[in-house]
Amino acid sequence: MESDLREHREREGLSQGDLAAAVDVTRQTINAVERGRYDPSLELALKLAAHFDCAVEDLFRLETPP
Fold first, then answer.
1. Which of 18, 38, 44, 66 could make an S-S bridge to 32, C-beta 3.0–4.6 Å?
2. Residue 25 has what DSSP assignment?
3. Where do runs of H (alpha helix) occur along 12-41?
4. Where is the HTH cro/C1-type domain (predicted)?
């Protein structure tokens, strides 16, 4: 899954720790999602979208095969 989470976070001037605290996860979870090493649960994806006041699709999209 590809993510624009980092772009949204940086646009708002948030650190990974700030965002993690806002959505009740660890900084390591945010880091893993941003690096594509962890696909967020539906609950986390919805929390992140609500935090940024956007659709889940604005933050995440499925990778298309080559």
1. 38
2. S
3. 16-23, 27-34
4. 5-59
CATH number at residue 46: 1.10.260.40
Number of structural domains in the chain: 1
How does pLDDT run across 19-64, given as a tens digit for each residue?
Answer: 999 999 999 999 999 999 999 999 999 999 999 999 999 999 987 7
Which element (helix H / strand E) includes 48? helix 42-52
Residue 61's identity, in one-letter code, is: R
Cβ contact 59:4 at 8 Å? yes
- Residue 41's domain comprises 2-52
Give the torsion sign (CA, 46, 35, 24, 39): positive
Confidence at residue 1, expressed as pLDDT on a 0 to 100 scale: 84
